[in-house]
């Protein structure tokens, strides 16, 4: 393992790619190539803080592969950001875009910072300086950032504005996940969480499970992905009995009032202070005896240590890298849990980002029904294709999803003659 990349998510992602490459007998030249990014940019981001000090942050943009189209992937603001983690997330983006058949490669970026400790002014200055530092490495035809953990529409708005100011005119296609008022797309905000639920619906239909009040769910994370996911399950009549944020989880046997909980959370209320609910210690949520468990926060939460304690029927991975390679090996061989792996489960986000990019390039906007219909069609097709690979080749769903994505990528690399 090369020192520069050493990180638990990177090690785990490489192990999963290697397992898949071995199973599908991937060309060894391509296999070696996929372990590393095309390019990785590391920048230092000085920011004047409110108390007049200048704090120094570190930022990354890792571009893994652009054989199938421009680099694409989110920007993460989190204290865990480093080169290895960002590279692993970029690798997953490459496979995710290939898997759903959208014309992008994979990238990821981020700043090592806890955004909850910054004022709004500090956050804006950090975002603008980070964007300025990577301005020659991104662009609507080359590499298009989007939101991820710890970032949101406002951050994308500042990124788009900084990019546009440098170029001298508004360039909405420079980022996706921006507000609708400046060229964003209807439903991008909802797309990742809603997409996870569309895939849960497909999985439930396949397993003969009827989604409704007899079905229970637990969701880890209550940000963009987790709260949308919980809300959409709730709207389908599923009893969402527990949700968790960084501090802990709330639980109600009869099902939580997700719309009220979401209002409370979005208005700045603490999850653990929501009235008339029980609380659970951190981590227990994943082990609840519910039908659906959806990790939708950070990576590495399901490991060799707790995987055998899972009691769900469907594991829907909203978060990237929630299951590490040790846990995956156990799930793969010894479990009857139906896994919707991250590259499939959360691909609704980048799919609507693709729609947003197309709309931003054409200055012509689609209706919510058009977007929702196209999203559903792409996700259902991806689900059927992955299931087909799994059934035909007798593979688990993660290896099947990675096989499908890596197979498409390898084909594109060969067609373009990248290894003459
Ligand atoms: N946004 C998107 O479109 C996409 C996101 N994803 C993935 O989904 C995941 C979540 O992203 P997103 O919803 O955008 O991020 P957000 O920043 O919007 O929300 C993150 C949520 O997770 C909670 N959280 C943070 N750390 C922990 C922890 N250790 N245990 C439990 N909960 C925790 C946060 O709690 P608190 O508020 O208390 O900090 C918050 O509720 C990430 O893995 C991301 O890569 C994947 C595809 C697209
Ligand atoms: O919407 C995008 O472009 C990328 C979203 C993302 O970062 C992800 O799918 O992990």
TrEMBL record:
Q: Which domain of life is it from?
A: Bacteria
Gene3D superfamilies (UniProt xref): Leucine Dehydrogenase, chain A, domain 1, NAD(P)-binding Rossmann-like Domain
Q: Where is this site: Important for catalysis?
A: 148
GO BP annotation list:
L-glutamate catabolic process
Domain (Glutamate/phenylalanine/leucine/valine/L-tryptophan dehydrogenase C-terminal): give its ranges: 185-417
Instruction: Cite a single GO MF annotation.
Output: nucleotide binding
Q: Any idea which positions bind NAD(+)? A: 192, 224
Q: Which residues act catalytically here?
A: 108
Q: Does the keyword Nucleotide-binding apply?
A: yes
Q: Which residues bind substrate?
A: 72, 96, 353
Could you tell me the keywords of this UniProt record? NAD, Nucleotide-binding, Oxidoreductase
Instruction: Give the InterPro entries listed for this entry.
Output: Aminoacid_DH-like_N_sf, Glu/Leu/Phe/Val/Trp_DH, Glu/Leu/Phe/Val/Trp_DH_C, Glu/Leu/Phe/Val/Trp_DH_dimer, Glu/Leu/Phe/Val_DH_AS, Glu_DH, NAD(P)-bd_dom_sf, NAD_bind_Glu_DH
Which family does the entry's similarity section mention?
Belongs to the Glu/Leu/Phe/Val dehydrogenases family.
Q: What is this protein called?
A: Glutamate dehydrogenase
Q: Whose protein is this, by species?
A: Vulgatibacter incomptus
Taxonomic lineage: Bacteria, Pseudomonadati, Myxococcota, Myxococcia, Myxococcales
């Amino acid at each position: 393992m090369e020192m520069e990349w050493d990180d638990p998510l990177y090690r785990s992602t490489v192990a999963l790619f290697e397992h898949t490459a071995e199973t599908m007998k991937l060309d060894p030249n391509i296999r070696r190539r996929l372990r590393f990014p095309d390019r990785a940019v590391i920048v230092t981001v000085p920011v004047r803080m409110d108390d007049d000090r200048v704090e120094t942050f570190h930022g990354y943009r890792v571009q893994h592969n652009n054989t199938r189209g421009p680099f694409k992937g989110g920007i993460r603001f989190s204290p865990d950001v480093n080169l290895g983690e960002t590279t692993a997330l970029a690798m997953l983006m490459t496979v995710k875009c290939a898997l759903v058949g959208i014309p992008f490669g994979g990238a990821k970026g981020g700043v090592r910072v806890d955004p909850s400790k910054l004022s709004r002014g500090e956050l804006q200055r950090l975002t603008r300086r980070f964007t300025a530092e990577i301005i020659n490495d991104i662009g609507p035809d080359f590499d298009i950032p989007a939101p991820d953990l710890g970032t949101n529409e406002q951050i994308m708005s500042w990124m788009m504005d900084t990019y546009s100011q440098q170029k001298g005119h508004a360039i909405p296609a420079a980022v996706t996940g921006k507000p609708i008022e400046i060229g964003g797309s209807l439903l991008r905000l909802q797309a990742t969480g809603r997409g996870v639920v569309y895939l849960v619906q497909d999985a439930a239909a396949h397993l003969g499970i009827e989604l409704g009040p007899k079905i229970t769910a637990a969701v880890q994370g209550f940000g963009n992905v987790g709260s949308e996911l919980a809300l959409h399950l709730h709207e389908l009549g599923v009893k969402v009995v527990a949700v968790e944020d960084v501090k802990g989880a709330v639980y109600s046997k009869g099902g939580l009032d997700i719309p009220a909980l979401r209002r409370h959370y979005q208005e700045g209320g603490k999850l653990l202070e929501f009235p008339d609910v029980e609380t659970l210690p951190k981590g227990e949520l994943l082990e609840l005896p519910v039908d659906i468990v959806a990790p939708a926060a950070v990576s590495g939460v399901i490991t060799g240590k707790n995987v055998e304690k899972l009691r769900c029927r469907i594991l829907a991975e909203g978060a990237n890298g929630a299951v590490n390679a040790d846990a995956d090996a156990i799930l793969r061989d010894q479990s009857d849990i139906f896994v919707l792996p991250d590259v499939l489960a959360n691909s609704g986000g980048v799919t609507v980002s693709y729609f947003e990019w197309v709309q931003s390039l054409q200055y012509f906007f689609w209706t919510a029904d058009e977007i929702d219909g196209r999203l559903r069609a792409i996700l259902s097709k991806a689900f059927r294709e992955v299931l087909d690979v799994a059934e035909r080749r007798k593979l688990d769903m993660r290896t099947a999803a990675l096989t499908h994505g890596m197979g498409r990528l390898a084909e594109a690399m060969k067609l373009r003659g990248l290894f003459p």
